[in-house]
Structure to design on (229 residues):
């Protein structure tokens, strides 16, 4: 607790570093000496709470950045008067609605979460490079874009660690080992992203970041129904 308070006082960067240090440390079973009150044992529920909060921060940042970009660069209209928006992950199959997400196998839902995050990493990296040439944008907007890209990498790593812990405990099977990175690596979303306006791009990411957070909450509830959620 003292470390957590110190990290919070030191700023968001230190807090995130502590967060993922705890996630990584929790992947193998904790070995604590009898009576060692300082030994930290994180449950699967604890780990889920951390990645859900992290995904919530990503969604909040993307919502704020989306509003800033829409104010400065109104969305383009096509000849029909509708926004010219095709999201980079439009071709990716994801559960349509909460009801369906509650029915698919837990391993498949975990895989969808990892696949979504992985698919956004490269487009976000290119988006950051593009944003750096926007001299009219305030530094705060550029900072948000960089934070989002970094936090997506952190979230993917954190969820991978939660997945490993669930597999080691027999909560889910090992069937998705290596699947997310191998299939998502063949999914190219960069071309679509390059053809979009900045505000459309972040709107799409905001939508998918909300999906990730919702799927994580559903997955936690399905694995730990005792939480009555």
């Amino acid at each position: 607790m003292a470390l957590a308070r110190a990290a919070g006082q030191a700023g968001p960067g230190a807090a995130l570093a502590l967060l993922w240090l705890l996630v990584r440390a929790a992947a193998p079973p904790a070995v604590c000496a009898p009576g060692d009150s300082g030994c930290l044992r994180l449950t699967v529920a604890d780990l889920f709470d951390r990645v859900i909060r992290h995904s919530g921060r990503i969604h909040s940042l993307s919502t704020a950045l989306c509003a800033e970009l829409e104010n400065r660069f109104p969305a383009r209209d096509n000849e029909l008067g509708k926004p010219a928006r095709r999201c980079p992950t439009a071709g990716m199959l994801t559960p349509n609605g909460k009801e369906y997400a509650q029915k698919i196998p837990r391993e498949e839902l975990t895989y969808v979460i990892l696949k979504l995050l992985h698919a956004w990493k490269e487009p976000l990296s290119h988006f950051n490079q593009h944003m750096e040439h926007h001299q009219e944008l305030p530094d705060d907007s550029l900072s948000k874009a960089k934070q989002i890209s970094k936090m997506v990498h952190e979230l993917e790593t954190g969820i991978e660690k939660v997945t490993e812990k669930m597999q080691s405990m027999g909560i889910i099977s090992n069937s998705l080992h290596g699947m997310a990175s191998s299939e998502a690596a063949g999914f190219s979303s960069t071309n679509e992203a390059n053809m979009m306006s900045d505000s459309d791009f972040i709107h799409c990411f905001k939508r998918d970041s909300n999906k990730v957070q919702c799927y994580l909450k559903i997955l936690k509830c399905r694995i730990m129904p005792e939480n009555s959620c």
